[in-house]
Amino acid sequence: MIVRYLGKKSAVRKGCPVCGGRGRTEYKTLTTNTYYTPSGNRIFVRIGKEYEVSDADGEFLLSLGDDFSVGETAS
Q1: pTM: predicted TM-score of the whole model, two decimal places
Q2: 13 DSSP β-pair partners
Q3: Is residue 4 within 8 Å of residue 48, measured between CB atoms?
């Protein structure tokens, strides 16, 4: 199965934790990430790249949410 990494959205809170001064939240997209699959493999992914994984690992990665999509089939 071929999957494509779309990036992961994360929220970073900034400001003083005691008084709450200048508190704000920044939303960023993680362009790289590391995933551990049920088969025991470690996959380092970059945004926009396609990766070939086993069917079981592909289903696991797709079940994580909007982080992955099904890639184009190899021709």
Answers
A1: 0.71
A2: 25
A3: yes
